[in-house]
Amino acid sequence: MRLYIDSANLTQIERINEYYPISGVTTNPSILVKEKKHYTQSLQEIRKIIGEEKELFIQVIADSASEIVEEAEYFQELIPGKNIIKIPVTQEGIKAIKQLTSKNIPTLATTIYTPFQALIAANAGAKYVAPYVNRIDDLSGDGIRVVSDIIHLFTIHKISTEVLAASFKNVNQVYQACLSGAHSVTVAPEIIEKLIAFPATQRDVKVFQSQWNEAYGNEIGKEW
């Protein structure tokens, strides 16, 4: 299971990338707009932080397939490194995924709400599909079930496309997505930091330190 940062905030990305085993960063138009700077500047600065070997996901905003392909090629030229182009699963989006696949430009099919959307996108050549777990739940659906069903379909039909589960509001949703077989998850920085947070861990560390200091002081590696 791979972990991605779902953010365009440079301070958060730098911190999470330093401390956690991150495979890359996912962005979308809403996330980029929040940073109140030109999107190309944000993307270039993110790339500097994570390096060229980690994946950076960039979403197109064009509607027609021809414009989506043009936009994807623009980003590939502008931003160095391993870029994945995020494309919504509209009819034009599926057409663009097919065209970009023929050009060896990797894509992620986004705004996935149903297993069939994921299956069509995968057959079109998408490298990743991104089911929206919490947004599905908000529509009275079952986001984790959708993730599980997509995994099941891909397994039955021997499809190599990977599921990158997205849209989480808490740690339990991330946990359940991983249990369901998601190949990777993209998570907001504040939730990533909660993945290892547990009060008993900090309590135990303090007890260990206290007992050690009482017996040996705070020096390690010297003769007593």
TrEMBL record:
Single Gene Ontology MF annotation: aldehyde-lyase activity
Q: Which GO terms describe its cellular component?
A: cytoplasm
The record's annotation in SUPFAM superfamilies points to: Aldolase
Q: Which GO terms describe its biological process?
A: carbohydrate metabolic process
* TM segment ranges: none
Q: Where in the cell is it found?
A: Cytoplasm
Primary site of residence: cytoplasm
One Pfam match? TAL_FSA
CDD domains documented for this protein: Transaldolase_FSA
State the name under which the record lists this protein.
Answer: Fructose-6-phosphate aldolase
Q: Known PROSITE patterns for this protein?
A: TRANSALDOLASE_1
Transcription regulation keyword on record: no
Query: What organism is listed for this UniProt entry?
Result: Niallia alba
List keywords of the entry alphabetically: Cytoplasm, Schiff base
Asked whether the UniProt record includes Cytoplasm among its keywords, one would answer yes
